[in-house]
Specification:
This protein has about 260 residues and is mainly α. The chain has helices spanning about 1-10, 30-50, 60-70, 80-90, 105-110, 115-130, 140-150, 160-165, 170-185, 215-255, and strands at about 15-20, 100, 135-140, 195, 200-205, 210. A hairpin with a 5-residue loop joins strand 4 (about 195) and strand 5 (about 200-205). The radius of gyration is 26 Å and the shape is elongated.
């Protein structure tokens, strides 16, 4: 085992974060402990497999060594555990969206949490899978609930996990946003107002909602307002072009009525 320890030390493995595909969230609410176990096993195998910047064969000894560190206990059947992790890796390792989350965060979810708290945790994971390296994005609830169900793309309500379906109401959506703001430190502005040309304060209509990370609330609101005003200006320009084209068409038709067939 000393040789394995030296080999792992030379790899310089650090376990600050787990890294796994969004598809691994499928069935999370069917068995939460199994769901977390799958995250840990996949992340352990993935990191060993891709360590030192090269793809490599993972053996039972080194996998046992690293998994024992993560779980805080000895593994009774290293070969069986390695096989489980390898099967997860072969089934889910692809070019799809990946999630990175702090190891301590995942470990903390093993203790008792209410169903709503677990929903918010998985919502956080879903948002992480959507944001990737972006500081913010505008997303829809359908897209988020689909990601929480382990889907890459937006799927219909019928394909969401039954537990997730329970929280697809206006009441729970508001509560999820509040919980993510207060406990997961995500930036979710909610309703935004702008001032019209007449000085009137008016709520901006947004399809979906904005969510950010590593960005201040002021910065995100500023971006939203800029995007809103730019979109409004484009709409105005389109409307003006339509009016101008309409007037030109009427003018041309009127000129034909009076015997002038040239387009002016």
């Amino acid at each position: 085992m000393g040789g394995v320890q030296n080999r792992n030390a030379s790899l310089g493995l650090k376990w600050d974060y787990y890294y796994f595909p969004v598809e691994l969230l499928k069935g999370y609410f069917t068995d939460i402990k199994l769901g977390i176990r799958r995250i840990v096993y996949f992340s352990c195998y993935y990191k060993l497999y891709s360590s030192a910047g090269a793809l490599r064969i993972v053996n039972a000894s080194e996998f046992n060594e690293e998994l024992s560190k993560l779980l805080g206990c000895k593994i009774s059947s290293p070969e069986a555990e390695l096989l489980e992790a390898r099967n997860l890796f072969l089934s889910y390792s692809s070019n799809g969206p990946m999630i990175s989350v702090k190891r301590e965060t995942v470990a903390g979810m093993l203790s008792y949490h209410s169903e709503f708290e677990q929903i918010c945790f998985v919502a956080f994971l879903g948002i992480r899978s959507i944001l990737q390296k972006n500081k913010y994005k505008k997303i829809t609830w359908s897209y988020l609930f689909s990601r929480m169900s382990g889907e890459r793309r937006t799927v219909s309500f019928d394909q969401w996990h039954p537990v997730i379906k329970k929280y697809a109401t206006r009441h729970y959506k508001r509560r999820i946003q509040e919980y993510l703001r207060d406990n997961w430190h995500l930036v979710i502005p909610g309703a935004i107002e702008d001032v019209t040309e007449t000085g009137e304060r008016k709520k901006i209509r947004i399809s979906g909602f904005y969510v950010g990370i590593s960005i201040s609330l002021k910065e995100l609101i500023l971006i939203i307002l800029k995007n809103h005003r730019a979109a409004n200006e484009k709409r105005k320009q389109r409307k003006l072009r339509k009016i101008e084209a309409n007037d030109e068409a009427i003018k041309w038709l009127n000129s034909r009525r009076h015997g002038n067939k040239e387009i002016t």
